[in-house]
Amino acid sequence: MKKNDARQKILETHEILNEFYGRLELKPRREPLRELISTMLSHRTNHANEEKAYFNMLETFGDWEGVLEAKFEDLADALKPAQFPGQKAANIQKVLQIIKAYPENKGKISIAFLEKMETNAALEWLTSLPGVGLKTATLLLLFNYHKPVMPVDTHVFRVSQRIGILTATNTPEKAHAILLEMLPKDPVELYNYHMHLLWHGQKICVWRKPKCEKCPLKTICNYYQEVVR
């Protein structure tokens, strides 16, 4: 597909889903450091177990200083509801140590400094942290600091591919930049596109048996035109 065709299709998708799901205000869903750590815990873990692991951790150790100073084995035990608790415990403690050592923090555990940081620099800093990938970094920067980035999770990626905005050779990592380049660089627009495709992938364009009969994107969707119809 030519770039101009994909750009037209993404803008049509954005417009249709804005109407279908309704426009959303961009509001942080969680405090920044919680957003970062919770998203790290969410890797290959459902939301209920992510939440259980997060609250187990803080109930056991009290605060971020307590988590940082905890024995590794005890922290891994508290994180057992999440997949790979040992790996996540090690990464969380490393991340908290790096944050505490950030010069501007003067020993505090806070990521408030990201608000003033230029977007690419903030992305580079976040993705340099152990256990923090591009999806986690973009979610945090868009949701909490209203930076113009495009988070791509499995739902956003799947729906964008089925519609024909992304090609079969695109990867989730590449998709962050590809989708961002075609969308308005307005954090509110990017947030709406992300959330609407997330919901669409959860409710209608599901993985195994997409509910195409309910989909408002049928007329522009490659999957519907080539496979279903």
UniProtKB/TrEMBL annotation:
<dbReference type="InterPro" id="IPR011257">
    <property type="entry name" value="DNA_glycosylase"/>
</dbReference>
<keyword id="KW-0326">Glycosidase</keyword>
<dbReference type="InterPro" id="IPR023170">
    <property type="entry name" value="HhH_base_excis_C"/>
</dbReference>
<keyword id="KW-0408">Iron</keyword>
<keyword id="KW-0234">DNA repair</keyword>
<keyword id="KW-0540">Nuclease</keyword>
<dbReference type="Pfam" id="PF00730">
    <property type="entry name" value="HhH-GPD"/>
</dbReference>
<dbReference type="InterPro" id="IPR003265">
    <property type="entry name" value="HhH-GPD_domain"/>
</dbReference>
<keyword id="KW-0479">Metal-binding</keyword>
<keyword id="KW-0227">DNA damage</keyword>
<feature type="domain" description="HhH-GPD">
    <location>
        <begin position="41"/>
        <end position="203"/>
    </location>
</feature>
<keyword id="KW-0004">4Fe-4S</keyword>
<dbReference type="InterPro" id="IPR004035">
    <property type="entry name" value="Endouclease-III_FeS-bd_BS"/>
</dbReference>
<keyword id="KW-0411">Iron-sulfur</keyword>
<dbReference type="GO" id="GO:0004519">
    <property type="term" value="F:endonuclease activity"/>
</dbReference>
<dbReference type="InterPro" id="IPR003651">
    <property type="entry name" value="Endonuclease3_FeS-loop_motif"/>
</dbReference>
<keyword id="KW-0378">Hydrolase</keyword>
<keyword id="KW-0255">Endonuclease</keyword>
<comment type="similarity">
    <text>Belongs to the Nth/MutY family.</text>
</comment>
<protein>
    <submittedName>
        <fullName>Endonuclease III</fullName>
    </submittedName>
</protein>
